[in-house]
Here is the input.
Amino acid sequence: MQPKTRKMEIRGLSLSFGGVNVLTDISMDLFEGELTAVIGPNGAGKSSLLNCISGFYHPQRGKIVFEGQEITGMDCVERSRLGISRTFQNIELYDGLSVLDNLMSARHNRMTYGPLAAGFYFGRARRQEIEHREIVEDVIDLLEIEAIRQKLVGGLSYGLRKRVDLGRALSTQPKLLLLDEPLAGMNKEEKEDMARFILDVSELRKTTMVIIEHDMSVVMDISDRVVMLDFGQKIVEGGPREVQNDPRAIKAYLGMGE
Amino acid sequence: MSDTLPKLLLRNYQAYGGSRVALREKDRGIWISHTWKQYYETVSRLAVAFRAMGLAKGNKVAIIGENKPHVYWFELAALSCGSAVMGIFSDCSAEETKYFLNHSDASFVVCQDQEQVDKILAVKDGIPGVKKVIYWEEKGMWNYKDDLLLTMKEMLETGAELERTRKGQFEEMIGETHGEDPAALFYSSGTTGIPKAAVQTHRNILRMVEMMDRRHPVRESDESVSFLPIAWIAEQLFNVAYSLWKGFTVNFPEKQETVPEDIRATGPHVLLLTPRIWEEMIRTVRVKITDAFWLNRVCFGAAIRVGSRVGDAEMKGVDAGAIWKTLRAVADFCVFRPLRDRLGLSRVRLAYTSGTAVSPDVILYFRAIGVPLIQIYGSSECGVATMHPRNQVKPETCGTPLDGYEMTLSDAGEILVRSDCLFKGYYKDPARTARALDGGVFHTGDFGKFDADGHLIVMDRLDDLQKIGSGRVFSPQFAETRIRFSPYVKDVLVVGREGRGAAIALVNIDPRNVGLWAEKRRIVYTTFSDLSQKKEVIELVRSEIGKVNAYLPEWATIGRFLNLHKEFDPDEAEMTRTRKVRREFMERKYQELIDALLGEDDRIEVTASVAYRDGSKGNVRSTVFMNDVTGGAVR
Here is the structure.
C-alpha cells in the first residue's frame, strides 16, 4: 500500500459555549481520498466538529491545518475558496430558485465578471458562464437529476432536496467534502441511492470526505475510517470493523455497563 | 443498389457527409448533433473492432439499453459484420436476459450502463456463448475488473488503430453484406407462452419502410424522436431503418424521465407512440382543464366541439364548410395551437399509434385538436400491414392494407397476411414457424373483420376471445380500450363468462388523476388501496363505466366491477414489457376476485403479495368492494 497523504490535521481542538464544553481536546487526521465517518450519540459534538472545520464555529483552543496551511483563523468564505465544502443537516437551499440555479450559485465565488457583462452576456461573462455550467452539468449527470434541472427546489421531495444539497457542495469542486447526515430521514431506496452517489464521488473524484451518519450499516459499508465522539471527546478511532467491536463504542451507543 | 442498412449508411455518408445531422442527443443539458459523417466514422471503427474480436457473418449481437445514438452505432457496426442484432428490453430481469442471450446464441452483448452490466455479470456463468460485454456509460464502474468487460472507448481506440493499418476494410465489409442476411431478431412480447424470435432480413425491413413511405411520405428534413424500446420492431422500422432510408434526423431524449420536455424541445414532425402514451396525454389535458377557471373550461369546451366537427369532416375527406372552417381557425389560434405546443406536437405532421388497440375516442380527440393521428396495425412477423389512408380515417378501424400486402380472413375470423416481406421464421423453432406460416400466409392470431370500404377492424387476440351469455363471441379488449379512455382509469381487465348475462371489470384506477380529483373534493386517503375503495371513487368509476356501457352491445355490457387494491405491474408479469395485459395469467391470478364478482358477495378480503421496487416481497391485506354498475351502491 502506498503511504497516505495527510489532507487535514486537527490538533487539540476545544470548543465551549459559556460553561458547556462541546468539544474537548480533539485531535485527528484526515487522509487524501479517504471517507471518514464521525459517529456518536446525540449531543456528542459531531456537528460542532464539522462546523469548526468549515469555519462556522471558531474553537477556543487548538489548530486546524489543511494541506499544510493553517486555517484556524480563516472564515467560511476563505475556507470555501481553499476547497472545503459542506452539506447541511437541515437542507439550506434557495427554495425559490431552480435546481440548476442553486448549483450555479455554488460557483459564484469563482465568477469574476461584473453585473454589466452578465446582463449583456458577452466576453468573459459568456465564457465563464459556459465553463461553470459544464462543471455543474457534470454534477447533474453524476447525481442523475437531469429531470428536475429546471424545477424549483421548494417543490421537490425531501430526498431529492438532499441530493441537490450534495450537488451544490460538489459543484464547488471541493477537495474536502463535509456531509452532515446526508441520509437522515430517507427511506430505504433513497438511502441506497444516496450511498451509491457518495461512493461514486469518492471513486471518481477521489474527494476526501467526512460524513456524519447514524445508520451503522451504511457507515460500515462505505467508510474507510471511523471516529467516535461522546460528550465532546474522541473515544475510538479506527477501521469500521474495529470500532464496531470496540467495547467503548458499544457502551457509548447502547449505554451498557461492564 | 443499397439493399442493406450499412449500405444505406455509406450512401448517406457520401451524399450528406458532414452537412446534415443524422442523430441528435441531449446530454448534460445540451443537444449534441452527430452528422452522417460522424455516424459513419463511429460505426466504421466499431465494426472493424468487432471484426477483429471475431464477430462473423451469421453471429448475433444483443443490445440492452435506453435509446441513445450508441445503440444505433453498435447496431450498424454489428450489421456491417454481417451479424444480426436483437434488442433486449432494459427492464428485463437477469434471468430473462440470460434466456434471451442463450436462445439467440448471442456472441456479444452491448450494455448501456452499470445496471445492465451488473445483470449480465450476475448470470455470467450461465452464458458460455458470450465473448465480450461492451458498455458505454462508465459511471460507477471505474473499479470493475472483469475480463468479459470492454468499454466503448477502448473499442473505438482499437478500431481507429486498425483503420490506420487496413484502409478500406469497412467499405469491403459493407460490400459483403447482403439483402437476404438476417438483420434483426424480434422477441415477441409473449402474451402467451415462451417468447419466440421472429427473424427479419435487411431486404424485408427496407421493403416495409418503403411501403409505409408510399402511404404517408416522410421528408428528408423531418425530425423524429427515438424513445420506444429498441427491442420493438416499431422502433427499428420507424427510426433506425427509416432514418437511414430517408435521411431524416433522429433525436434522443436525455433520460426516460425527461421525454415529454425533450419531445417539446425537439418539435418532431413524425411521432409514433403507443396508445398508452396518447391516452396519458389526453388524461393530463382533461384533468388540467377540469381544474381550470370556469371561463377557460367553457372556451375549451366550445373549441373542442368546433374541432371535433371539422376533424370529423377531415377524416371522412369531405368539406366542413366555410363557417366551421373559420370557427376552427379561431379555435386553433386561441386554444389548440398553444395546447399542441405544450404537448410538443406543434410540428407533428404524421402521428401514429401502434402496439395495442386504441379507443376511437383517442383518435377523435387528437383529430379535434389538430393532431392527425393515424392508427397502424402490424407485428414483428409482417411489419406494418395496414394504415389509415389520408382522407379516409375511420377511428374504429386500423385502415387499409398497404401496397404489397394482401389480407384475408380465415373461416374462424383470423386475420391472414400475404406479402413479400414476411418474416423468415422463428429462430430455432420450426414447429411454431410451420404453424404461423402455414400455406405461405402469416397467421396473425388476431380476430378481426373488414368493413364495407375494406378497412380492417381488429377485435382482439384470437386466444383472448371469450363467450358470454348464450354463447356469443365477446371481445374483452373492445370494452377495455373504451373504458381506458376515462381519465380516471389507467388499466382494466374485462372478463365475460358463458352463461352469465353481463361482463365484469377489474379496474386499476389512475392514482394521479383520481388522487387530484379526491383532493379537490377534500376526500382524505392514505394509500392507493385506500383511495381505490373510497365510496366516492367507486361512484366515480361507476359513472365512467356507465358511459361506456351505452356504447357496448346490450349483451356485452359491464354488470359488476371492482376497483383493484393494487396496480397492474410488468414486474409482476401481469403485463408484457410493452404494457399489454397478459390475460390468461391475470385471470388465473385474480381468480378469487373474478369469482367474487360473478358471485353474490359485496366484498372480499384479499391478501396480495406485492413486489416492491427494491426487489423484496411483501403482503398487503385489504378489503375490496364489489359494485353494480347500475342501481345503487352496494355499500
